[in-house]
Amino acid sequence: MYRYDEFDRTLVKERVAQFRGQVARRVAGELTEDEFRPLRLMNGLYLQLHAYMLRVAVPYGTLSSRQMRMLAHIARTYDKGYGHFTTRQNIQYNWPRLGEVPDILDDLASVEMHAIQTSGNCIRNVTSDQYAGAIAEEIEDPRPWAELIRQWSTFHPEFSYLPRKFKIAVTGSPHDRAAVKVHDIGLDLVKSEAGEIGFRVHVGGGQGRTPMIAMTIREFLPKAELLAYLEAVMRTYNRLGRRDNLFKARIKILVHETGQEKFRAMVDEEYALMQGESPIEVPPEEVARIVAYFAPPAFERLPDADPATDRLAAEDRDFAAWLRRNVKAHRAPGYAIVDISLKPIGGVPGDATADQMDLVADLAETLSFDELRVTHEQNLVLPHVRKRDLPELWRRLKAAGLATPNMGLASDIIACPGLDYCNLANARSIPIAQKLSERLADQALQEDLGELKIKISGCINACGHHHVGHIGILGVDRKGTEYYQISLGGSADENTSLGEILGPSFTEDDAVEVVDKILGLYRELRENGESFLQCYRRVGARPFKERIYGAH
Amino acid sequence: MAKAELPQALTANRLGDGEVVYRTPAGAWSARFAEAAVFGTKADAEKALADAEADVAARRVVAVYLFDVVPGPNGPSPRETREVIRAKGPTVRLDLGKQAGNSAEHGARAS
Ligand code: SF4
Fold it and tell me: To the nearest whole angstrom, how far is the Cα of B105 from the nearest Cα of chain A?
């Protein structure tokens, strides 16, 4: 894992000391709320419905057990015993007191964590594939590149006041789990015909009010040119992005209004210009230094199959279901990737108690080379587990309510905090997730429905990724009452698509019924084992509209 | 948000811990909606809002605003779901927030 160097350490410490001073000045009346707000936001501190909320960065979703234990400690000591993992691979605390936030930040700094780049119009915390460095299909581990981008972008003076926030995602696998095409910049590691590895660059994706799929502006970018090229994109955006209109300020608007070819040409021009100056080049030693931090752990040479695990799978249906759904093929023989579901039936998606965090930290330490991941789908991952340890791991997870065998299934629902916590919400998201999860709880039913991504946002900001849900649910406000708009056919993988709105919105109870009916129709219409998404793409929206609104 | 209708009450978040508070008839702040002053006229509501600015300046509270309430047999209640949730706590965690009866844990008064 990446460890801070002296520079990072000093920077983060100074930042905490600075914020401690700012809080003191705020409390002493030397700063007004208007003066203080941007300062607290730069440190990840929001004011929400019931209290302050602190958002802590988990860069590219990777954590050590020591860090996870600190997250548990913070939940227990300063908050109300739990935290919420978000779709940005971060964690949020819902009840911190203002005066204690500097102490929390100090505690975080002691394990090389912080809340910087979780807010404001800067380059935000870089996100990545949760299976990075572990999954069999991977071309290359994307995290060293995510880390390089983090170092380049943290406090970059040119990019601290962008027209709007800026999100970058990197993946190293052909199957995209990082939703790169709905980020401001998405990067895929790809292999050229000559066998060289580089990046495919997508720019101008995003969700929110105006969802857009990123355009590919470079099919193959040699690794050595990554930062210089990104800098050219950023400069083009910084110069031309719409600072006059909040709703048009994201790069997606610029890219889509300009058009793919023209935008590409503009970036190329900027890039050529930069070659005349002194282009930023990352010394290969620096890349090698970072890559070394992410070197694969010392895997044992193991036979791929483990007889005891297979035996238990044959005897115990629950274990077998968990293996089927929550365990993925690892690139090292005899190892597996384990998803830890934070989606118990009827639970709050993404919430974990301090005790659960401690347990997961222990499991990571003893059974997964001390590594943990946070997924943008609000689950956790133990990336490197010996197959022979799976039975024990499963028992311990199960005892803590962390072994729901539902990864990728109907009850593995993304839901933003919504009106239960969020100041910007129009409607609640969590209760509808809970009702759907209970309605669709039956394991046989879920497995029959197959891969299904239900995503719920409490407002158009789309933190719950509803635009890219196979079934997306958006909370809207109708005269102070919560309503839900349903869209179908979205997807955030390598075949990204935006969902189409089914029609007029529904009350909460009706929305649950409607999803049930949609799934019923899918089961009638599917052919040859089609997934929901495949079926929808084949038949289109019409039969679903007819089934739902036909009676009206 | 729907158009403002009377009567209204005045709310804010306490600076120190963000706790939701309500302006009381005595011009103090209470963490309990039941103790909120209810303003029947626009003039009263606006005056309370203007008065509350002094408490913003005095660093007791932030984010002060008026919201609609509706009279009922057991006293007034907030008109919109958002304010009902602020007055009680998250609907998905009845053990947290004001509804859990532990708001005193953060100190019941603003100052
Ligand atoms: S989508 Fe809206 S309601 Fe949900 S967390 Fe984001 S801003 Fe809040």
Answer: 11
Every domain of chain A with CATH number 3.90.480.20 lies at 6-109, 307-399
Interface test with A, best of B68, B92, B98 (most A CBs within 10 A): B92
Decide: B8 and B71 in contact? Cβ < 8 Å.
Answer: no
* Residue A488 Cα to ligand 1 middle (Å): 20
CA triplet A462, A382, A311: central angle to 5 degrees? 125
A40 Cβ neighbours under 8 A, 6+ residues apart: A19, A22, A46, A101
Do you find a cis peptide bond into A297, omega within 30 degrees of 0? no
CA distance A421 to chain B (A): 6
Q: Do A29 and B2 touch (CB under 8 A)?
A: no
Residue A52: closest C-alpha in chain B: B18
Has domain A6-109 been given CATH number 1.10.3720.10? no
CB contact, 8 Å: A34 with chain B? Answer: no
Residue A47: which of B13, B96, B97 has the nearest Cβ? Answer: B13
Place of tokens 């698509």: A497
| Domain at A307-399: CATH code | 3.90.480.20
What does the pLDDT profile of chain A (552 residues) look like in tens digits? 677 777 788 888 999 999 999 999 999 999 999 999 999 998 999 999 999 999 999 989 999 999 999 999 999 999 999 999 999 899 999 999 999 999 999 999 999 999 887 777 888 889 999 999 999 999 999 999 999 998 888 767 788 788 888 899 999 999 999 999 999 999 999 999 999 999 999 999 999 999 999 999 999 999 999 999 999 999 999 888 778 888 888 899 999 999 999 999 999 999 998 887 766 777 888 889 999 999 999 999 999 999 999 999 999 999 999 999 999 999 999 999 999 999 999 999 999 999 999 999 999 999 999 999 999 999 999 999 999 999 999 999 999 999 999 999 999 999 999 999 999 999 999 999 999 999 999 999 999 999 999 999 999 999 999 999 999 999 999 887 899 999 999 999 999 999 999 999 999 999 999 999 999 999 999 999 999 999 999 999 999 999 999 855
Residue nearest to atom 6 of ligand 1 (CA): A463
Alpha carbon of B51 to ligand 1 centroid (Å): 32
Which atom of ligand 1 lies nearest, measured to the CA of A417? 5
A177 neighbors A154 (Cβ within 8 angstroms): no
The three-state secondary structure class of A163 is: coil
Interface confidence (ipTM) of the complex: 0.91
| Ligand 1 proximity of A102 Cβ (cutoff 6 Å) | no
Alpha-carbon gap, residue B4 to B18, rounded angstroms: 24
Angle (CA) A75 A80 A82, round 5°: 50
Say if the Cβ atoms of B81 and A95 lie within 8 Å: no
Name the residue of A53, A165, A416 whose CB sits within 8 Å of the most ligand 1 atoms, as the mutation to test its pocket.
Answer: A416
Chain A CB contacts of B1 under 8 Å are 477, 480
Residue among A26, A80, A419 minimizing CB distance to B81? A419
The segment(s) of chain A belonging to CATH 3.30.413.10 are 134-293, 414-549
Contact with chain A for residue B15, Cβ under 8 A: yes
* Predicted TM-score (pTM) of this structure: 0.94
Q: How many residues does chain B have?
A: 111
**Which CATH homologous superfamily contains domain A134-293?**
Sulfite Reductase Hemoprotein, domain 1 (3.30.413.10)
Strand pairing report for A215-222 and A197-203: antiparallel
Q: Ligand 1 centroid to A422 CA: how many Å? A: 6
- CA triple A376-A379-A382, angle to 5 deg: 110
CATH topology for A414-549? Sulfite Reductase Hemoprotein; domain 1 (3.30.413)
